[in-house]
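Incident log, entry 3
Record: ABC transmembrane type-1 domain-containing protein (259 residues)
Problem: checksum mismatch between cached and fresh output.
Input:
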Amino acid sequence: MTNYTELIKPNGRPDRSSYGVMVLAQVVIAAIIWFLSQSPLLPTPVEILRAMGRLVQNDNLIQELWTSMALSLQAMLIATVISLLIAYATVIPFFRPLAFLITKFRFLTLVGLSFVFTLMTHSGHSLKVSLLVFGITVFFVTNMVGVVQSVTRNELNHARTLRMSEWQVVWEVVILGKFDQVFDVIRQNFAIAWALLTLVEGISRAEGGVGTMLLNQNKHFHIDAVFAIQIVILLVGIALDYGIGFLKKLFCPYATLTH
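Fresh output:
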């Protein structure tokens, strides 16, 4: 028998059927409120769908979305390589001050650094990639240093009892042993990159992208188009997030095992 009281208990454990009913009811209530809303700042779902169709047909939304995805993936790949090298280098005390300094750069704003990166780069595309790589790396390094530091002395000593050299200990315990957590860090920081996309494409509008399209629609107060683009950005971001989660299960199936 379905027990709905578990839905309102602290640390409750509702069964699948009651949980599904709760989610469906919340979605229906939210949809009704949305349909009945008369706020000029909140377009109806019908208006958003019409705007989305107009953007696809007249403004090349799909092409602009692909441009933004390619930019984000390129920046994420470069930032991942750089961040992993810096984070893993902290096993050597000489490199720890560098990593510490980079983690503090996360308090800087990209707008204030755009002039510096403009002088350092030779095109609008390289400017956007550089800004995104910087924005991702400072947070990625912060998270990965935490992963490296989470390795316990017992884990290191266990590897040493197997007569491994210190470099073998780093490879087996720090790198391979924590590899599943790298995917978690990538998921977290890809969300940051996806959120920074609009800002970066607003700084340099070369090549377009959904960020540029969003800013243009917002400038002309096309609220329905703004919501349509935001929904597309949200759905694509969620899909990419699940994609990274799938890669984690594929390459690190042991991560889902319970003890």
